[in-house]
Amino acid sequence: MVSFPDEDFFQLNTYLDELKPSKLFILVDENTHGHCLPTLLGNLETSLPFEILEIESGEEMKTLTTAAHLWEILAEFEADRKALLINLGGGVITDLGGFVASTYKRGIKFINIPTTLLAMCDASIGGKTGIDHQFIKNIIGTFAAADHVFVYPDFLKSLPFAELRSGFAEMLKHGLIADEKHWEDLIALPDLEAEQVFPHIKRSMDIKLEIVEQDFREQNIRKTLNFGHTVGHAIESIHLESGKPILHGEAVAAGMICEAWLSANEKIIAPEEANRIIENIRRFFPPIDLSAFPGEDLVDLMRKDKKNSRNRINFSLPEKIGRARYDVHIPEENIYHALHYYQNLT
Ligand SMILES: NC(=O)c1ccc[n+]([C@@H]2O[C@H](COP(=O)([O-])OP(=O)(O)OC[C@H]3O[C@@H](n4cnc5c(N)ncnc54)[C@H](O)[C@@H]3O)[C@@H](O)[C@H]2O)c1
Fold it and tell me: All domains of the chain, ordered by start, with CATH?
C-alpha cells in the first residue's frame, strides 16, 4: 500500500493506531536525522515507545557489517516480532532497513518513508531489499514488500541538486520503458528543481507499481525495470571499489546511454529514436570519465550481475520510447563497443 501524498501525516498516524506495534525503531542516516526526523517526530501522534537507529550516509554503508550491527541493536533493545521498523531515508536506508527487517526473527514488519526522489519513485516500492557484498551491488537480499509506503514530497526541499538529478534518472527510465508521455513530460521540464518534478512523481511511482504488481519476483516484465542497470551497476560498482563512489542515478544514466546504443546496434530500436534518448539524457547528465577503468573490469562485473543466467550477460533494452524488451543476450565484443562509444562522447 502506498499513501501519496500523506497530508499532515494523517494516514501514518491512522496506520500506527490500527497496527499497534510493540515498539517503533526508526532507521535514519545523519542527513535524514537532521533534515527529516524532526518533521516526522513533530507529526507523530502516538505514545508508542521508540528508538532511533542512526547510520552514516552513503552506499558504502549498505553492507553485511551494517546489517549485522542493526540486527544486534534490535536484539539488544528486545525488538519482538510485533516491532515495526520505520525506514526514513533514501534508497540506501530503504534497501538496508528492508533487508534487516525481513531477516530479523524471520521477518518483522517495516514501512518506508522515502526522503529522496530516487527512493520515492523507485527504491521504496516494489519489495526488493538488499545489501552490496564484495562491491557487487545488491548481491544479497530478499523480496519483501514494505507493509506501507508513506510519501511526503516536501522532504525533497532539502535534497541536494545532484541527489535530485540522480532520482530523475530512474524517472526517465520509467518513461522510456513504459510511458512515452511521461518521458516527454520529463524532458520538457525547463529546470530540474524539486517543485517542477513534484507533479510527475505520482506517475513515475505508478509505472513501477503497475509493473511490480504483474511480476513481483521478476520472472518476466519486471526485468524491463533493469534498463540501464547492467552497464550502470558495473559503473557504480567499479567506482565504489575505487573509493570514489558516484550516485546510483548518474551510473544508471550512463548505463542507459550505453544500452540505448546497444539496442540500436542490435537493430531493436530505430537509430534516430536511440539518438533522441541519448541526446536528452546527456542534456541532464554530464559524462562520467571511465578512462581509468579497463573495459575488461567493467564487463567482468557485468558477468557477475545477478540478472544473468546460463553465463550470458542479459540486457533489458528499449524497442521504442515507451516500450522495452528483456532477456536480450548481447555478445561481449558489442558491450566493449558500447563502452568505447560512451567514452568517446564529447
Ligand atoms: N530496491 C529497489 O528497487 C531499488 C531501486 C533503485 C535503487 N535502489 C538503491 O537505492 C540506493 C540509492 O538511493 P538514493 O539515491 O536515495 O541514495 P541515499 O539513500 O544514499 O540518499 C542519497 C543522499 O541523500 C541524503 N538524503 C536523503 N534524504 C534527504 C533529504 N530529504 N534531504 C537532504 N539529504 C537527504 C542521504 O543522507 C544521502 O547522503 C542504491 O543503493 C540503489 O541500489 C534500490
Answer: 2-158 (3.40.50.1970), 161-343 (1.20.1090.10)
